[in-house]
Every structure is written in C-alpha cells, then in structure tokens.
Design a protein that fits this description.
With 120 residues, this protein is mainly alpha-helical. The chain has helices spanning 20-25, 32-44, 47-54, 58-72, 88-107, and strands spanning 77-80, 83-86. The protein is built from five helices and two strands. Strands 1-2 form a two-stranded antiparallel sheet. A hairpin with a 2-residue loop joins strand 1 and strand 2 (83-86).
Length: 120
C-alpha cells in the first residue's frame, strides 16, 4: 500500500504508516494564510523578502509553502541561491490563488480559516 503513495509521504516501515493512507485520501483545504504566503513569495521572488513583508520568520514561511505544495501534490517554486521562481504549475496556480483570496476578502473570511470548509 505504501508504494502507491507519493515518495515524499512514504514513512519508514513501522512509523505512523497507519495514518498515511487516511491523510492521502482527505481533500486538500488550503488556508488563506498559505495562499497569501504563496502569492507573497511569487511576487517577491524571494522567501527572505516575502517573509520580511509578511512579518514572518523565513523558516515559518518556507514551512507554509512546503505544506501547501505537499497538500497539492505539486512543486510551486524552483528554489535556488538567487531566489524562488514559479514552476509552470505555480504560474497557473498564481491567478487562481489571487482570485480565491479576493473572493475570501469580499466574504470576510478569517485569516486562518480553510478556504473550502465544506470539504472537511
């Protein structure tokens, strides 16, 4: 059963393997803060500059993006010493993330609320 899971989610045998299938089958519910973080990094092309603009530690911002990428099952950024560049998927996702954030703002959605609570 573990071989059918993405490589990043494969645990060492005997370590929390009973949880993995359940986690993989649950719908992805990005939070607005994850989407805001994604947009900020995309616009700044740098985790460091985006973190400063969001008043977050760079490590915290990086972790949020990693959680978002893992939840979506795609890589959104190519990271290197010069910064962060959107992948092809990231370029497709950016206008969608902006649109969701705009609609959430219009609706008054709380910062940490799941964007699609009916999927829970």
């Amino acid at each position: 059963m573990l071989s059918s899971l993405p490589s990043w989610s494969r645990a060492r045998p005997g370590r929390h393997t009973d949880v993995l299938p359940r986690l993989q089958s649950e719908p992805v519910t990005p939070e607005s803060r994850q989407l805001r973080s994604f947009v900020a990094v995309a616009e700044a092309t740098s985790f460091t500059r985006a973190a400063a603009g969001l008043h977050l530690a760079q490590q915290s911002l990086s972790q949020q993006i990693t959680v978002l990428e893992r939840g979506l099952g795609v890589r959104l950024f190519d990271r290197d010493a010069r910064g962060a560049r959107l992948t092809a998927v990231g370029r497709l996702f950016l206008p969608e993330a902006r649109a969701v954030l705009a609609r959430a703002e219009e609706a008054g959605v709380h910062e940490s609320a799941p964007m699609w609570p009916w999927l829970r």
